[in-house]
Amino acid sequence: MGGLKVRARDSEILIRFESPLDIAAIHDLTRRAFLGKTYSQGDEPDLIKALRDSGALTLSLVAVHEGVVVGHVAFSPAMALDGSDGWFALGPIAVDPPWQRQGIGGRLIRAGLDRLTALQASGCVLIGDTGYYPRHGFVPRPDLAPAGEPAEHFMLIKLDQRAVDTVVSFHPIFHGLVAKP
């Protein structure tokens, strides 16, 4: 995926894989996007770094406008209780506050899910707003939420319709079970 051009706010946005030159911008943008949010502990930039440093950042896409990173989404491996392969977790996802509500987050999600589908993924899980993510194909599945997760915000999307319903847990880094570098 060299890049997918989309339009937002009458401007061209390029969605592409992150590069090493984007890392500081991703960190800063993620910090700004989550600053002051009641549902955030402010550790999202550190989570992305820990996933990247441990080799668990499967897919990292950025949205770029005129050379400036204005959005980012991370996907990492997830573990299915039944042992099936091909599950991933979406998150964190962040859009620079001045660029929010322009469709950039949705474009990042779609580009990431398209890439995971091309990789023959079984599906993707997340914890998030049940008013937002269903418009991107995610289905609330509190019955499949792993222990310790807020079941009312647990959602998944099957990317392979042959995938069976199973509990899918996030990478241990999400819970500090693996030392963050």
Write the layout of secondary structure elements.
Elements: E1 4-8, E2 11-17, H1 23-34, H2 44-53, E3 59-65, E4 68-77, E5 79-80, E6 87-95, H3 104-118, E7 123-127, E8 139-140, E9 154-158, E10 168-169
Parallel strand pairs: 6-7
Antiparallel strand pairs: 1-2, 2-3, 3-4, 4-6, 5-10, 7-9, 8-9
Helix pairs in contact: 1-2
Account of the protein in words:
There is one protein chain. The longest helix has 15 residues, at 104-118. The chain is built from three helices and ten strands. Strands 1-2-3-4-6-7-9-8 form an eight-stranded mixed beta sheet, with helices on both faces. A two-stranded antiparallel ribbon has the order 5-10. Helices cover 20% and strands 30% of the residues. It has one domain: 3-Layer(aba) Sandwich (Aminopeptidase).
